[in-house]
Amino acid sequence: MTASRDDLRPLPALAHDVAGDAGAPAVLLLHAGVADHRMWDAVAPALAHAFRVIRPDLRGYGDSPLLVDGTEYTNAGDLADLLDELGVADAVVVGASFGGKVALELATAHPGRVRELVLLCPAAPGVPDTAASDAFDEEEARLLGAGDVEGAVRLNVTTWLGPDADDAARQALTVMQRRAFEVQLAADAAASAAGLPEPGPRPVEIDLGAVHVPTVVVEGAHDMDQLRACARHVAASVPGAELSVLDWAGHLPVLERPDAMRALLLDVLRDDPTVHAP
Asked: Residue limits of the AB hydrolase-1 domain (predicted)?
């Protein structure tokens, strides 16, 4: 029998970084699926002057290992537990890519914990794959199947960073993606050796129409077509959501132009939330 996180022992807490005044409004920064909490390094200090900034590593990334004992969990449940641990009732949730999808899972499963959403090139359910996304998935699977982890890292860096990314951004993403592969492949091997299912979170069904918090969606003009469609789908489906298209951005604008994204985030977070309300 597979253990459920809802009825057995508490799970190990997510590794996380916290900065800012404990009494300030909380901002939860959720990283992309090719990164970890370090992707926010260039913007978090500026946000921490006015907000309590929380940067977790989701399980399988950075310093948060995957569970390999068969215990079930959800990313949304992990985040709700982390907010409980920190004494945070609710937060503005900023999610990049996969982190944007996790933010929507949190808003669906624990709506009272989310005060506002800022979704940067989010992944989302209900959007068909494209020739480009299929080709990427097939090439990544081929490289990993051949044991060429460094090749898979390079593929991700080349695919997901836009034209404005500098060498420092490419190196930072290389380090984070390599770490994610190390953590995930080690967990897969351990689970396989123990005869257990492949580790990973239990999915949470997202109902975009039931998300009733102020929501800002960012789309990168140089992002993959499937991810651009995801951003537009979310913006069209969440009541009252605003869509902003960055003509210079690829999939990871926080890494590509941190100064511009620092200004954008401060502008959104300091704005009167009723401006964005449904």
From this structure: 25-169
| Residue 15: Cβ within 10 Å count | 18
DSSP 64: B
Low-confidence residues in the chain, pLDDT < 50: 1-9, 272-278
Q: Which helix (H) or strand (E) holds 41?
A: none
pTM exceeds 0.85: yes
Please write the tens of the pLDDT for every residue from 192-209: 998 998 899 998 999 999
Tokens 């034209």 found at? 163
- Using the Cα atoms of residue 212, residue 126, residue 204 and residue 101 in order, give the sign of their dihedral: negative
User: What is the rounded end-to-end Cα distance, in angstroms, of the chain?
Assistant: 43
Q: Where are the alpha helices (DSSP H) in 7-165?
A: 44-47, 75-86, 98-109, 131-145, 149-160
Q: What pLDDT sits at residue 4?
A: 33
CA distance 48 to 50: 5
Which of 114, 175, 118 lies closest to 150 in space, CA to CA? 175
